[in-house]
Amino acid sequence: DAKTTQPPSMDCAEGRAANLPCNHSTISGNEYVYWYRQIHSQGPQYIIHGLKNNETNEMASLIITEDRKSSTLILPHATLRDTAVYYCIVREGTSSQAGTALIFGKGTTLSVSS
Amino acid sequence: EPEVTQTPSHQVTQMGQEVILRCVPISNHLYFYWYRQILGQKVEFLVSFYNNEISEKSEIFDDQFSVERPDGSNFTLKIRSTKLEDSAMYFCASSESRPFSYEQYFGPGTRLTVT
C-alpha cells in the first residue's frame, strides 16, 4: 500500500497557486518524495522529487517540512490544463532501488476552474 | 523531447486470445516497466525489466503475462489468454539508472478491451 496520505480532491481558481499537501509520517531517511500527475487517463507524468531540501523546476515547487513527515506541491499559477490527479509517492533513492516499482495511491484530484 | 511511445493505442480482442502490446522506451534508458489501470482504479505496477531480465514483478504478473525486449528498441507485454478482467489501460514506462534520480517516464498507454 502507498505510504502517503493525500486529500481526495481540491479546487483551485485559474491563475491562483495550487497547494497540494501530502503526509508521509513514516518516511525513512533514504526515501525521496516524488510527485506525478495523470491528466484524464493519459500516462502519469513526472513532476518533481526531493529528499529534504525544497526543490523547484519549471513545473512546480516542492516544500518538504524539516521533519520530512509532510510535503506540499505548489503549482504557482494553475491553469485549466493542470486539472489532473496528483500522486505523492515515497521511495528509496539508492542505487539498489533503481528499477523498482512506483506504488500509486488514489492521489488528489485537482480541479482548476476559470 | 524524447518520449515513450506505445502501439496500438486501442486493442480489442476476444476472451482467450493472445495479445502483444508494444512499447518503444526512451533510447538511453535502461529500466523498463509495465503498469496497468483498470477504469476508475489506481495505477498498478506489473513488472520491471533490466539487462534482459525481469527485476521485479507484482502478484498481478502471473503466468499469463510475459515481457520481452526483442530488439534494441522495442519492449513488449504479452498476455497469453486474455480474460475479461484484463480490460484496462496498459502503460509502459522507462527510466535511466543514474544514481538518486529514478523518475519514470510513461507512454500514453494502450487501452485493451477484452470482449
Structural class by sheet pairing and helices of chain A:
mainly beta
Major sheet attributes of chain A: 5 strands, mixed
Shape of chain B: globular
**Share of residues in strands of chain A:** over 45%
User: How many whole angstroms does the radius of gyration of chain A measure?
Assistant: 14 Å
**Number of discrete helical segments of chain B:** 0
Order of helices and strands of chain A: EEEEEEEEE
Please give the number of β-strands of chain A. 9
Overall pLDDT score of chain B: 93
- Report the oligomer: heterodimer
What is the ordering of alpha helices and beta strands of chain B?
EEEEEEEEEEE
Q: Low-confidence parts of chain B, pLDDT < 50 over ≥5 residues?
A: none
- Report the average pLDDT across residues of chain A: 91
Biggest sheet strand line-up of chain A: 1-9-8-3-4
Radius of gyration of chain B: 13 Å
pLDDT < 50 stretches of chain A: none
Helicity of chain B, as a percent range: under 10%
| Share of residues in helices of chain A | under 10%
Spatial shape of chain A:
globular
Strand content of chain B: over 45%
| Coarse structural class of chain B | mainly beta
